[in-house]
Amino acid sequence: MSWDPTGAARLNLMFDPQDLTGPQREGDACVVCHKKWPRPRVRVGRLPDDAPVMACEDCAQALLPAPPAPRQKSSERRAALP
Asked: Left, alpha or beta for 34 (phi > 0: left; psi -120 to 50: alpha)?
């Protein structure tokens, strides 16, 4: 299952396989917390050979990029006058 929290773009993190355990590289353990059961089901990135990297749902939320700051309307901005 791919993970797309915003519906706009896919999260495409690249992980170094040397930093992962065997079960993490094979998708059998969460890439963050190493939990094996229930098996991680959220695809959060990939390895250099395009193998998927999986995370449990709780850890996948931690990998989300920070939400953008709300924009102000142009009428709410005020310039300082000298």
From this structure: left
Q: Measuring CA to CA, how many Å separate 79 from each of 6, 71, 73, 75?
A: 33, 16, 13, 11
- Tell me the pLDDT tens digit for each residue of 38-79: 999 999 999 999 999 999 999 998 887 767 778 776 655 566
**Cis ω on the peptide bond leading into residue 38 (within 30° of 0)?**
yes
- This prediction has a pTM of 0.65
Residues 67, 13, 39, CA angle at the centre, nearest 5°?
100
Nearest to 15 by CA among 46, 38, 56: 46
Pick from 7, 13, 48, 51: which is nearest to 32 by CA?
13
